[in-house]
Specification:
- The protein is mainly alpha-helical.
- It has one domain.
- It contains nine helices and two strands; from the N terminus they run H-H-H-H-H-H-H-E-E-H-H.
- The model has no long low-confidence stretch (mean pLDDT 94).
Length: 224
């Protein structure tokens, strides 16, 4: 559940379902956009091999704010939404797709979706890009560990793929059921169906495409 010991609800989500977003599990605060601009600067400076500027691109306060928001609010918001809408889990459509691993679809779907989460539309980058950024600036400036010191920028802007209709309920592992997703929306959506947490189908909206952003991410992802 949301890590707020003194509350019976997520204070970031609130208690008025009528105004909850139907696009993403939890609307991101303004400082997430600032954090993205810092990440974009880091990527740009890295492509120019400007180490000094790259090392100073990610502000510690922004990184900490992003980490706390992800940890306290974003990961478990689906549970709060599910408790409100009270839609039962459907029976799985059997047989389940024997393929669950979506690795072979990553590049195709990421590019199709413009390296943006199809739920919240936040720009995202593949884990390989983060590893290359980390190699350039080092752990002191971009920590990619599994401890509490993991970069908030990494937690908020690393991309994954999401089964829109959960694989465990019969969802297919193919391009018609996979969308690019940020970790906060992916964890927030969890294993619920869209109906269970009151979300619209992201595949019914056109992806937000920014060719300049795609080119910037690709310049790092394809580099050696």
């Amino acid at each position: 559940m949301c890590k707020q010991k003194d509350h019976s609800y997520c204070t970031e989500l609130g208690t008025e379902p009528d105004i909850w977003s139907r696009l993403s599990p939890l609307t991101k605060p303004d400082f997430v956009e600032r954090g993205f601009q810092e990440l974009r600067s880091l990527i740009t400076f890295t492509t120019k091999a400007d180490l000094n500027s790259a090392e100073n691109a990610l502000l510690p306060k922004s990184d900490n704010d992003l980490r706390i928001w992800f940890d306290v609010h974003a990961q478990n918001v689906g549970t709060w939404r599910y408790k409100e809408f009270k839609v039962a889990f459907p029976s799985p459509t059997l047989p389940l797709d024997p393929i669950k691993d979506f690795s072979k679809f990553r590049r195709t779907v990421f590019i199709r979706d413009g390296f943006r989460c199809r739920y919240c539309e936040s720009p995202v980058v593949p884990s390989e890009v983060f590893r290359k950024l980390n190699k350039f600036v080092g752990d002191d400036h971009l920590t990619l560990t599994t401890t509490n010191s993991t970069s908030g920028h990494y937690l908020m802007f690393c991309s994954t793929l999401d089964h829109v209709f959960p694989h465990s309920l019969g969802g297919r592992t193919d391009e018609n059921n996979l969308v690019t997703c940020c970790w906060s929306c992916n964890y927030g959506k969890s294993n619920y169906t869209l109906e269970q947490i009151g979300l619209d189908n992201p595949l019914h909206r056109e992806p937000k495409i920014d060719q300049e952003w795609i080119a910037l991410v690709e310049s790092i992802w394809q580099s050696h």
